[in-house]
Amino acid sequence: MTIGWKEPTRLCDIGRAQPGFSDRIALSEGKARLTYIELDRKIQAARSAYADLGLSPGDRIVLLLPASIPFVITYLGAHRAGLVVIPLNPLLGPDEIGFILATMRPAMVLADAADAPFPVMAELDTIVAGIEGGTELVRVGGETGFEARMARARPDLPTMERADDDEALILFTSGTSGRPKGASHREGAIITNVRHSNTAFRITPYDVMLCPLPLSHVFGQIVLMLGGLMAGAELVLIPRPAPETVFAAMTDHDASFLAAVPTTFAALAEQGRNHPVEAAAASRRLRFALAGGAPLPPATGEAFGQVFGVPVHQGYGMTEVACCIAIETPGAAPSGGVGPICKPLDYRIVPVGDDNSDEGELEIAGANLMRGYYIDGALQLRPPERWFPTGDVVRRDDRGNIFIFDRKKEMVIRNGYNVYPSEVEAALASHPAVLLAAVVGIEDSAVGQEIAAFVSLREDQSATATELAEWCRTRIALYKYPRLLAILPKLPTNPTGKILKRALDPTLLQRVDVH
């Protein structure tokens, strides 16, 4: 059967039911299911609830909700009401949330229940009460909460359509000073980015897209949530993406598309290796696996491919582009890089240092980049004709594929040589006992910076620090192998599963000299 689906062209139309398509599943979370007509009605009810709360087009609303069906409904309802959406991860600390709310002064904060398992929720009433300008706090549940207002919906309220240049979304990212800053995005830019990623990944209404990612982050929000619902696919949310939960969801939902961070792929490979029969069932419809959020060690991609029979391709994006910069597309073997630069973008590679002239920092330009940053609540517009430095050191091959070495600021200089942590991490990850690895530079009076590695091992595997150092020494340049190592039960990660290098404790390192 051929499905007729007309792709939405505005954010306010995403999730809207279409003739002959209303009974197909749009959204899943656990045992909960919503068809497109049910989702459409709930989005319209949310749009009505915003009007009932006195909000007008252009008002800012903060969403402080986990990846869930309520997040999708309130997010799309806000766009249908013409509001500017500021999604924040509820795992952020009270100080971070307080700073953003105090400087941005949104008209409303829509948040999870006060007893939800996020530390900030219990303190939110106090935080919001201290904001100048009358920000209103509304909780999702309860007899007087947002869902109660949705139940009194007026279905006849019109959709508030925005122009391409209107601000639609503000995404917060860490600032260089340690304070978060908000990237301001236009309606037209977001639509362009979603449409491009859908075309690149060949998303259709037949796809079932598994999302073990927070929807407050561009990867989950743009590529999966907006991309899946724009294409008429089924979006499967996994709010608590433990490896066994994701593994089970692959089978339960017959997933065709999986996007996750590299640590999730490493854990899934481990799960599949231990449960081969279930792994075969989990991959029966899987056609594409996409890694993003951090560099993918080749050994991790190979391990997943061996277990599930599907190679892991890489994508590369940033909050400032919302989201894709480069994409590896289906139908070709993984290049080891992140694919070619997305067509909506212009780019150039600016050399860094003198020892590798074919490498440099990637700079990008294009109408689909952010409008500018909100810094301490004030918007600093970015001149549209100016190149935007990504901070990533890359090279380009003769087929146009981009290979990322590392963040420019994370590059380690040892005895005058540039060392990219991702290269050392890849060498460590190729060891059969290693599950995850993180490499940083440690100040050293003799060599300037020393290479330090933090490693966690696979279940029922063992390795010594000396063994791991020797393994690297035979695979990468002598000045690159780690002389400082720590083997830990688990490496710290953020809500997306990306390793938190700033949380690694250097006092746990031991010196290893291999001769």
Detailed description of the structure:
- With 515 residues, the protein is of the alpha/beta class.
- It is 28% helix and 26% strand.
- The strands form 6 sheets. It has an 8-stranded mixed β-sheet, sandwiched between helices. It has a 4-stranded parallel β-sheet with strand order 4-3-5-6, sandwiched between helices. It has a 4-stranded antiparallel β-sheet with strand order 7-8-17-18.
- A hairpin with a 2-residue loop joins strand 1 and strand 2 (32-35).
- Helix 9 runs parallel beside helix 11.
- The termini are far apart.
Features:
515 residues, alpha/beta, four-stranded parallel sheet, 28% helix, 26% strand
Give the count of helical stretches: 13
Percent in strands: 25-35%
Give the uncertain stretches in residue-range form.
none
Classify the helix fraction into a percent range.
25-40%
Query: What's the number of extended β-strand segments?
Result: 26
Strand order in the sheet with the most strands:
2-1-10-9-11-12-13-14
Biggest sheet: strands, sense, closure? 8 strands, mixed
- Radius of gyration, taken over Cα atoms and rounded to an integer in Å: 23 Å
**Can you tell me the overall shape?**
globular
Global mean pLDDT: 91
Distance between the termini: 66 Å
Would you tell me the structural class of the helices and strands?
Answer: alpha/beta
